[in-house]
Specification:
Layout: E1 3-8, H1 14-25, E2 29-31, H2 32-36, E3 37-39, E4 45-47, H3 50-61, E5 66-69, H4 76-82, E6 85-89, H5 93-107, E7 111-112, E8 117-118, H6 123-145, E9 150-154, H7 157-165, H8 182-189
């Protein structure tokens, strides 16, 4: 596993899994949300334009080794084509809503230190999670059926833990590596 795409509904645990896989496998970890949301001068964040996002995403998947977590369905086919392994966290709406609630309590609307974006939980986001199984999941399953890479589907947090236990221990003493900094994200946005 050298190019791993971690996908699934919001609150499924994509970022946590990606960070741990990166640490264990010695791979750089790139968080879709951390690249998609641009920092505004003076604070706050704004979405990338579609053109910016396509260019940024192409640079993200162009590397030889990575773990990329996140969705953004419009660019997902390109990421799946570039990956050698896709991990689909297929946990269901209730588990994902619980994950979002736990994350909200942990970050309380502040910037998430693990990905460098603000914890946005809106009514639209909750609706997206609730409708994920009926709207987005079928599209993902169709993309995965056509995918030429290895696909791992994990359906519970226990399966995620078992999958992680089966991965090799970190070679670098457990130091997280490769988390893209805000400066690195800004370089991709404004070369």
């Amino acid at each position: 596993m050298r190019r791993i795409a971690v996908i699934g509904c919001g609150g499924a645990g994509k970022t946590t899994l990606a960070n741990e896989l990166g640490r264990r496998l010695g791979l750089p970890v790139l968080h879709v949300d951390g690249f998609y949301w641009q920092q505004r001068p003076g604070g706050g964040q704004v979405e990338s334009t579609p053109e910016q996002w396509r260019r940024i995403h192409e640079e993200m998947i162009g590397g030889e080794r990575w773990v990329i977590d996140g969705m953004k369905v419009g660019v997902l086919p390109a990421r799946l084509a570039a990956a050698d392994t896709v991990i689909f966290l297929d946990l269901g709406a209730w588990r994902c809503l619980w994950g979002v609630l736990r994350r909200r309590l942990r970050h309380r609307g502040q910037m998430r230190p693990d990905i460098g974006v603000y914890d946005r939980i809106t009514t639209a986001f909750i609706r997206w999670i609730w409708s994920f199984d009926k709207t987005i999941r079928p599209r993902i399953l169709g993309l995965l059926a056509d995918c030429s890479c290895d696909v791992v589907t994990l359906r519970s947090r226990a399966e995620v833990r078992a999958f992680l236990r089966a991965q090799p221990a970190a070679q670098d003493g457990g130091r997280p590596i490769g988390l893209a900094s805000v400066a690195e994200r800004q370089h991709l946005l404004h070369p």
